[in-house]
Amino acid sequence: MNSVQLESEEGVPLAVALSERVHWVGALDPNLRTFDIILKTANGTSYNAYVIRGSEGVAVIDTVKEGFANDFFARLESVADYSEIKVIVLNHLEPDHTGALPELMKRAPQAQLFISQKAQSMLKGLLKQDELSYTPVVTGDKVSLGDRSLEFLHTPYLHWPDTQCTYAPEEAMLFSGDVFGCHFCDNRLYNDKVGDFRFSFEYYYAHIMRPFKEYVVRALELIEPLPLKLIAPTHGPILRDRPQHYIQRYRQLSSPALHNELRPNQKTLLIFYISSYGNTRRMAEAIYQGAMQIEDVRVSLYDLEGGEVAPFVDLIEEADGLVLGTPTINGDAVKPIWDLLSSLAVVNLKNKLGGVFGSYGWTGEGVRLVEDRLRGLKLRVPIQGLRVKLIPTDDEIHECKAFGLELAQELTGARESRVINFADL
């Protein structure tokens, strides 16, 4: 039987048993089509919340978006009295998980609220209350419900600074917050019953977790050793069938692929350009030739006019250096360059090497504007961008080769430090 009973015959929302002691008390939002402005949700989403019962009390783990609070409270009331609630856990403070919290705290004033240490200031900003009773926790902290217990895992930046996971060892269940979640609404709830949600799982990772890969890896080091029967995220299907498969997929998505192809200590430099009349292209080719002089730098050259942006983003994520070439048209860099830069918000670029060059006809603002954007994306831009007016001369082509050589030397640490004359900037 594929269906899961979410309502009584009278239409009253009901909790769904994940085990004898654990219930889902969340809400479904099948008509949502955009989440947080940037995410498309072709199948809507779910706001998953959970209840776990111990011999000495009940814990509520996360709540739901405010507009769906009635469903949450009805399901909660179907399996517990408010007087039994001893613990409330918030794995993440985003409004879609905390919308019902103020009312829950009113109905269960005796309950102790547990949040991550980094969530403390955010909680006050969220509820706009100065006097809040809560307990901040870190990895290794535990709370007892008698014959059931909860253990906390600090997993920051997945995808807010406050995020954590909660593990119920006696149930071998991980309440993972946004980790291993996705925006996919299906009233069958379980991953082995719902429709094909692989696209949503990968899409969610790419837009929510990908910028924080280093934190994903740290979280996996805490999660991978845990005995697990089930992963219960705050969005999307509950992962009871092969939960380790989703952990392994996160490991794959967070592990660099390019490094397997490189020699030890070899660096990678990517040069992207777009050219109106061939002048910026000539500069790019010369910069490429200059950078190629350093044996320990693997240099690649790409014409943005001939490729889609998405595959380039994958390349840039694993590269050590990024160089962009753009003409200046109407006082600005050209659109394909800005399209590429806007796509880089989903990856971590901090401390990568950046450089900019380009041909111009009048004033050449494009190079400076792109340099500013690279700095805004946390790249290092230690070498002033190179600008050439109209057609590069032989001397200017030589300058381009020297520019490429300097960038490659910077990557390998072989570049000599120089005193910058700010009058030249």
Automatic annotation (TrEMBL):
Residue ranges occupied by any Flavodoxin-like domain in the UniProt entry: 269-408
Gene3D superfamilies documented for this protein: 3.40.50.360, Ribonuclease Z/Hydroxyacylglutathione hydrolase-like (3.60.15.10)
Coiled coil: none
Top-level taxonomic group: Bacteria
Gene Ontology MF terms in the entry: electron transfer activity; FMN binding; hydrolase activity; metal ion binding; oxidoreductase activity
Cofactors demanded by this protein: FMN
Keywords: Flavoprotein, FMN, Hydrolase
Protein family (similarity comment): In the N-terminal section; belongs to the zinc metallo-hydrolase group 3 family.
PANTHER family documented for this protein: ANAEROBIC NITRIC OXIDE REDUCTASE FLAVORUBREDOXIN
Name of this chain's protein: MBL fold metallo-hydrolase
Organism lineage string: Bacteria, Pseudomonadati, Pseudomonadota, Gammaproteobacteria, Methylococcales
